[in-house]
């Protein structure tokens, strides 16, 4: 096997095995068609990689406090 063939086979193998690494960036777990407005008290804010998190306590229609956790897009998309 020539060096070129070996390099090609190695490159293709690495690409095939690395494909699952990119799989977590799908948006199928999120409902992007519904806009939700929350009003409440922020209890925690973490501006971290790969996704910043906001935790807050919001009151529902009956006045009961519900805990929400909001996962945002990557920090480099949030900073101007």
Brief overview:
The chain has 2 helices and 3 strands, in the order αβββα.
Strand content: 25-35%
Mean pLDDT: 83
Distance between the termini: 51 Å
**Topology pattern, helix = H, strand = E:** HEEEH
Biggest β-sheet: count, sense, barrel? 3 strands, antiparallel
List the main descriptive attributes of the protein structure presented here.
3-stranded antiparallel beta sheet, about 80 residues, alpha+beta, 2 helices
List the helices and strands and how they pair.
Blueprint: H1 3-18, E1 40-46, E2 53-59, E3 65-71, H2 75-78
Structure characterization notes:
This protein has 2 helices and 3 strands, in the order H-E-E-E-H. 25% of the residues lie in helices and 26% in strands. It has helices at 3-18, 75-78, and strands at 40-46, 53-59, 65-71. The protein has a 3-stranded antiparallel beta sheet, with no helix packed on it. It is of the alpha+beta class and 80 residues long. The chain has one domain. The longest helix is centred in the N-terminal third of the chain and has 16 residues, at 3-18. The model has no long low-confidence stretch (mean pLDDT 83). Strand 1 and strand 2 (53-59) form a beta hairpin.
